[in-house]
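Tokens for chain A. Residues wanted.
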């Protein structure tokens, strides 16, 4: 069976002291983890968390965003090359919070994916519909449009990406998609990836949106759910460890 991937998305949370405590708690129990695992931390803490994890950690280092530009006059941006310099293995791209608050378009997301792949960093590409879109019967259309743009620009190496299905109405709301609702969308995404690549079966499709210690096992039991992108619950070591165990 394919190894599951559990990625924590700390979002804009943490401090030097809080990160140190959280990583220490995770590492103390890390022997129970036999899935792939990553911590996607705020950019200023990449160096700190890299040092805390040390060599041969079961947790890979992840970032939450990457610039669509290579380098130059882009104040505030962080390039894929810089992320690579800090040992970053994964980067979240196109999270709905960035699409919504930073105006990231499908095209921006596709270019960011290309930048990450060019540096050997695995992009975790987020797609997902709003509540209005779901209620309007648009879910499939929306997620396929979002993924199509990434496939269009990165078709030749599409099997190197990770996809995360994150329904916007489930993010940080405590309202999770049911395992069947999630599986239905994952199957649509899998079919779309299969049409683009002979290796689509090995592309992890994660579920994200209020995944927690109580619901993780049921979600992860679905045939096309290959892991989770975890926000709130990744900030609490016991909860995150329970999810990691459910995926192991
Ligand atoms: P949540 O966030 O687990 O807090 O819902 C998930 C995400 O936004 O990646």
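Reply:
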């Amino acid at each position: 069976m394919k190894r599951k991937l559990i990625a924590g998305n700390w979002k804009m949370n943490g401090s030097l002291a809080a990160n140190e405590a959280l990583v220490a708690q995770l590492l103390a129990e890390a022997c129970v983890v036999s899935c792939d695992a990553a911590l996607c931390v705020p950019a200023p803490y990449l160096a700190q968390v890299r040092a805390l994890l040390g060599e041969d950690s079961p947790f890979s280092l992840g970032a939450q965003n990457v610039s669509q530009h290579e380098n130059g006059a882009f104040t505030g941006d962080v390039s894929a090359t810089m992320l690579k310099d800090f040992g970053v293995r994964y980067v979240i791209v196109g999270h709905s919070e960035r699409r919504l608050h930073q105006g990231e378009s499908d095209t921006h997301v596709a270019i960011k994916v290309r930048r990450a792949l060019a540096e050997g960093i695995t992009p975790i590409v987020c797609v997902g519909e709003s509540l209005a879109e779901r209620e309007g019967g648009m879910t499939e259309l929306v997620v396929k449009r979002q993924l199509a743009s990434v496939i269009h620009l990165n078709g030749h190496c599409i099997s190197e990406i990770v996809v995360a299905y994150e329904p916007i109405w489930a993010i940080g709301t405590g309202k999770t998609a049911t395992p069947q609702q999630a599986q239905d969308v994952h199957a649509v995404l899998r079919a779309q990836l299969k049409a683009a690549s002979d290796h689509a079966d090995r592309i992890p499709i994660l579920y994200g949106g209020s995944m927690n210690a109580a619901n993780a096992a049921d979600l992860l039991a679905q045939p096309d759910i290959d892991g989770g992108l975890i926000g709130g619950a990744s900030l609490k070591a016991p909860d995150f460890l329970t999810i990691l165990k459910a995926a192991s």
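Strands lie at 5-9, 36-40, 59-63, 90-93, 122-127, 162-165, 205-208, 227-230. The chain has one domain: 5-69+77-247.
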